[in-house]
From TrEMBL:
Stored PROSITE patterns: RHODANESE_3
Record keyword Transmembrane present: yes
Residues covered by the Rhodanese domain: 19-108
Taxonomy of the source species: Bacteria, Bacillati, Actinomycetota, Actinomycetes, Glycomycetales
Protein name, per record: Rhodanese-like domain-containing protein
Keyword entries, A-Z: Membrane, Transmembrane, Transmembrane helix
Alphabetized CDD domains for the sequence: RHOD
Length: 177
């Protein structure tokens, strides 16, 4: 599948698109992350559901601005959407982090759910420690620890993360805002 051309906008340009053209802010993070903190007025369409929402995004006949925590998942969402929405689709450069840094308004539930990247680091680190410790009792378990490390290398090289996709199914990541 060819990669869609990527149009990045900063927080100020995104706010201007919302004000002038009624652009739709689409947050592609998990529902748990979205419930914790989100750009004011944004709606949540988690990354795995973006392709299914493609037609609805085009029917709104308004520009779409994709965002996530840092911009990576928004870029993946843009790749999934391709050029077929029929409306301009932009990526918020720097994600919610840049949005907040530029003083743009955010909404918060007061709930604290760790971001997906932090959850992945915790899970991967805990698994490696567990497999290394258990390998003292049964040596072949060291290879499971090595497999986790290899998975992290693949995640970095491909800019995708299977562990994040699995963690997205945990209850705190699935709660609606």
């Amino acid at each position: 599948m060819p990669t869609a051309s990527k149009s990045y906008v900063d927080a100020n340009a995104a706010r201007q698109l919302v004000a002038d053209h009624g652009a739709v802010l689409v947050d592609v993070r998990t529902p748990g992350e979205f419930a914790t903190e989100r750009a004011e007025g944004s709606r949540n369409i988690p990354l795995p559901l973006v392709k299914a929402a493609q037609a609805a995004l085009g029917e709104a006949e308004r520009p779409v601005i994709l965002l996530c925590a840092s911009g990576t998942r928004a870029g993946q969402a843009k790749d999934l959407l391709g050029e077929e929405t029929g409306v301009p689709v932009h990526i918020l450069e720097g994600g919610l982090t840049a949005w907040k840094r530029d003083g743009a308004p955010v909404e918060s539930s007061g709930r604290r759910v760790w971001g997906m990247e932090r959850q992945v680091r915790l899970a991967a680190g805990a698994l490696v420690i567990a497999f290394v410790a258990l390998s003292l009792a049964w040596e072949p378990l060291k290879w499971l620890g090595a497999a986790i490390g290899a998975g992290l290398v693949v995640a970095a090289v491909t800019n995708t993360c299977a562990m994040a996709r699995v963690l997205a199914f945990l209850p705190w990541n699935r709660r609606a805002a």
